[in-house]
Write a structure and sequence with these properties.
This protein is α/β, with parallel strands linked by helices and about 210 residues long. Helix content is about 45%, strand content about 15%. The longest helix is centred in the C-terminal third of the chain and has 20 residues.
Amino acid sequence: MMDARLSPIVAHSLIPVVVIDDADSAPGLADALVAGGLPVAEVTFRTPAAADAIARMSANSEIVLGAGTVRTAEQVDQAVDAGATYIVSAGLSAAVVRRAQERGVPVLPGTVTATEILAAMELGLDAVKFFPAETSGGVAAIKALAAPFPDITFVPTGGVSPKNLADYLAVKSIAACGGSWMCPRDAVKAGDFATIERLSREAVALVASLKEA
């Protein structure tokens, strides 16, 4: 079962994956996601602004913040110290996983193979990121991996979009999907928070319609 501390992510079925070039954009982004009914974010450590952006977004108490693209134990510390409550990595790093566990936060390491999933299980995990999802086989690959690993929960990211979201969320072993379409990098950079709020509302409505179907 997925870590209970990640229940807000499971409840929304989506994780907006965001790249922030300027931390000044962070408060407006957080407010737009909350206003759009999607108070979750994975702020990627792809820019120097990531830690500061997490700290500034955390001023909005309604948003559940995580750090993505975390590659080192030092970045785990930076993220948690800034206010991140979960850690996501593109690949499986034992050092990252162990440091997150030491800091008491859930961690979703990136995996695409049975070997990587086994390694994650040996580190005590029962939930993993599946990345990059579409180019690694997508839904078919996750279904194939779920057969020998029925106790593993997947969070696919990479190529997930409104067009294929239904296919992913229909898979029992998938708890949520990460996606960037709700928070286009250009919109974040331009401070176009109205667009981000609108796209978030549309994403929430899409998930609701899929759950009703």
